[in-house]
Amino acid sequence: MSHHGLLLVLSGPSGVGKGTLVSLLTETDKNVVVSVSATTRAPRAGEIHGKSYYFLSQEEFARMEGAGEFLEFSHHFGNGYGTPKQTVLNAMAEGKTVLLEIDVNGALAVKQAMPESVLIMIAPPDFKALKDRLTKRNTESAEVIANRISRAAFELSKTELYDYVVVNDNLTEALENIQAIILAEKSKTARSGETIKKIMEE
Amino acid sequence: MSHHGLLLVLSGPSGVGKGTLVSLLTETDKNVVVSVSATTRAPRAGEIHGKSYYFLSQEEFARMEGAGEFLEFSHHFGNGYGTPKQTVLNAMAEGKTVLLEIDVNGALAVKQAMPESVLIMIAPPDFKALKDRLTKRNTESAEVIANRISRAAFELSKTELYDYVVVNDNLTEALENIQAIILAEKSKTARSGETIKKIMEE
């Protein structure tokens, strides 16, 4: 209906099920696409340039960073990670719903750059359940787990800065909740200039 | 999830299918209730006090109007019509989604009194289709029809002042669209203080 797509930013602590929700959203709605990030880190086995990531040289990343070509970016352990602005804008111009799965700092940077973006925090029913889930994974060291838990508490403490909070207690219900947000956001009058113009046509 | 209900205001021109949508919304979701208006006009055959309307004396209506006990009110042909504030607030305190089916002037008055209210304009796919529908009814005089059409144009011209616009091209889709808006609005962080508090509990 609208000629402009939607930019949906999903955040949430590790272990909350973001990845599964993102997969289900793209599978159930062909109009939903996931934004591919850029990174300077080396590709891992099986990763495909332009699909898993855009693998960039340090020089190219620095150039794009300096030229303001990222919607948001960060550096971890010497590697750059960023969301290329132009690919997001191109997909939105095609009317796509673009999903970004990024952390709180990235999400707030996107909101500042594009106030029309929609920020959704995926949250556990309660923090205790999340702690249990992270602890039971058992594949990581106690230190890594402790880091994840304190990071999770930080992310969730920023929930009020988001537009929506979706509790992932039940995967189907959480998926329906996000789909409802997409449909509702598309019906906002602020995004429906073309629709309103068409209604008034005689 | 939230301990506070939602106030949903539906407007739209005559013939757009508002009444059918209101019925379907209450039938498919037991949590949705329609606000009963107050009026000074005489009950018609079959109308029940407290269900069709609250039938009030001119004196009682004037008293409530003066005391600010209406969320919105208007006078037509010597009769008063108003939405009693307290019954809406009571239903919301019970967590209900309260529907008001009122005109543009009433809706904008409600938004001013309660900025958290959600205004939805139900619109035809295009104005021509609505004109055809109103004209074909054939049960009313040309003058009544002409009045309806000019009133419809006025109502639709205010769409941008609403939060959402739902095009009623297909009844099922329009119903799903409103249901999505209800679910999305309930997930807004601004309404989810209790949910967020619960998430952070350890």
Key descriptive features of the protein:
homodimer; 202 residues; alpha/beta; 8 helices; 44% helix
Written description of the protein model:
- The structure is a homodimer of 202-residue chains.
- In chain A, the strands form 2 sheets. A 5-stranded parallel β-sheet of chain A has the order 2-7-1-8-9, with helices on both faces. A 4-stranded mixed β-sheet of chain A has the order 4-3-6-5.
- In chain A, helix 5 runs antiparallel to helix 6 (142-156).
- Chain A contains 8 helices and 9 strands.
- The radius of gyration of chain A is 18 Å and the shape is globular.
- The first copy, chain A, has helices at 18-28, 58-66, 85-93, 104-113, 127-136, 142-156, 171-186, 193-200, and strands spanning 6-11, 32-34, 38-39, 54-55, 70-76, 79-84, 97-101, 118-123, 164-167.
- The model of chain A has no long low-confidence stretch (mean pLDDT 92).
- The first copy, chain A, is of the alpha/beta class and 202 residues long.
- The A-B interface holds A 1, 121, 123-128, 131, 153, 156-157, 159-167, 176-177, 179-181, 183-185, 187-189, 192, 195-196, 198-202 and B 1, 121, 123-128, 131, 153, 156-157, 159-167, 176-177, 179-181, 183-185, 187-189, 192, 195-196, 198-202.
SSE topology:
The structure is a homodimer of 202-residue chains.
Chain A: E1 6-11, H1 18-28, E2 32-34, E3 38-39, E4 54-55, H2 58-66, E5 70-76, E6 79-84, H3 85-93, E7 97-101, H4 104-113, E8 118-123, H5 127-136, H6 142-156, E9 164-167, H7 171-186, H8 193-200
Parallel strand pairs in A: 1-7, 1-8, 2-7, 3-4, 8-9
Antiparallel strand pairs in A: 3-6, 5-6
Helix pairs in contact in A: 5-6
